Amino acid sequence: MAEARRHVYALTLDEWEAWVRQQGQPRYRARQIWEGLYRHLWPRPEAFSTLPKGLRTALAEQFVFQRLTPTHEQVSRDGETHKTLFRLPDGPVVETVRMRYVRRRTLCISTQSGCAMGCVFCATGQLGLLRNLQVGEIVEQVVYYARWLRQQGERVTNIVVMGMGEPFHNYEATMRALAILNHPQGFGLGARRITVSTVGLVPRIRQFAREGKQYNLAVSLHAADDALRARLIPVARRWPLQEIMDAVREYIAATHRRVTFEWALIHEVNDTPEQASKLASLLRGLLAHVNLIPLNPTPGYAGRASTRERARAFCAVLRAAGVPCTVRLRRGIDIQAGCGQLAGQALAPRPRFLVGQTWPAQGEEA
To answer: 12 lies in a domain?
Structure first.
């Protein structure tokens, strides 16, 4: 049986150099392929006009340019959020989101189809883990939207690895994909424009710190004591808060980068003054920022978002303790594109807003 074709977006520049040598071609041909993929965004081998015909033929025979099939596109009512549902070759689905801000065009990309972490309020966690994405499948999400934005005269300015899945549960593929996207002679997205989110896989946070990359780190905390956190995030039973904070300090010491802590505000669950005070004590003196995100509705969780007043009160406690804090704008809620809502539109019914929820779907900040 012939060897399966490799994904064209899975190779590093060094690997392309090795490949062109195998084809009897000079090293500079690898640079031409690299620039064709990530600067010109050419979608098929025939487009690589800088290459000789024989090398274009070898590209077509040995590599596949598309493994993600877009099957559904949704745009939020305000037009600022766009979500694509992709089907993978073996059947599972994955979602990617594009968010438009005044000066930024941010992509929220996925690293897994589903997720094994089981966060109770997260639609992806409710789905369970279907499989890890391969390197090229992670990169292809970005290339897909980069082509789309180029048609609008725009470009990708930021990437947040906060879509479906736990990036540190698919660590090697995620880091390799980001290295490809970060390469200055290719796609060239600066490391400080890339944010990786984790629920707190301590060994991987420490590995991330040791590698010394300048990618931003976001930690999904959601509770300031181990008992409540274990109720919301089952994996928290394995790594208590103190271990997470120790690993975060290692990251800050190695990179001198500020850490963002994500907190889904759930009415009368983790939005209390007591939780705010505990969080302030946990983070006091740390190079950190807290993003408060009023809970987005998902089919499998009955909790509701904190009220505007409770969110502001929570933030006030943090600020009084010297901890920077922001209540984040809610975007794309009407198309299930908000934080914690990605599960594949075909697999999840449209959520409803619960009675008494006073936050608008999007567009307001405390």
So the answer is: yes
- The residue range of the domain holding 89 is 69-335
* Site of tokens 């899975």: 10
From residue 262, give the alpha-carbon distance in Å to each of 17, 21, 223, 326: 40, 46, 10, 10
How high is the pLDDT of residue 336?
61
Give the pLDDT of residue 255: 94
Residues near 204 by beta carbon (within 8 Å), at least 6 away in sequence: 168, 171, 198
Q: 173 with 99: CB under 8 angstroms?
A: no
Q: pLDDT band at residue 199, thresholds of 50, 70 and 90?
A: very high
List, for residues 13-58, the tens digit of each pLDDT value: 999 999 999 999 999 999 999 999 999 999 999 999 999 999 999 9
Do 44 and 189 fall within a single domain? Answer: no
Spatial separation of the C-alpha atoms in residues 58 and 34, rounded to whole Å: 15
Give CA–CA dist 197/205, Å, rounded.
10
Paired tokens of 208 = 């991330």
Whether 95 is covered by a domain: the verdict is yes
303 is a domain residue: yes
Distance CA 2, CA 134 (A): 20
Query: Cα–Cα distance between 321 and 96 in angstroms, integer?
Result: 36
Its pTM surpasses 0.85: yes
Instruction: Check if 95 is active-site.
Output: yes
Active-site hit among 3, 17, 95, 122:
95
**Catalytic residue (one of 115, 122, 315, 339):** 339
CA distance 261 to 217: 9
For the domain that residue 319 is a member of, what is the CATH number? 3.20.20.70
Instruction: State the alpha helices, DSSP H only, in the chain.
Output: 13-22, 28-38, 53-62, 123-127, 135-151, 171-182, 202-211, 226-232, 241-255, 273-283, 308-320
255 and 149 together in one domain: yes
pLDDT, tens only, 90-144:
999 999 999 888 889 999 999 999 999 999 988 788 888 999 999 999 999 999 9
Query: In the annotation, is 122 catalytic?
Result: no
Contact at 8 Å (CB) between 332 and 83?
yes
Interstrand relation of 112-113 and 105-108 (parallel, antiparallel or unpaired)? unpaired
Count of other CB atoms within 10 angstroms of residue 314 = 26
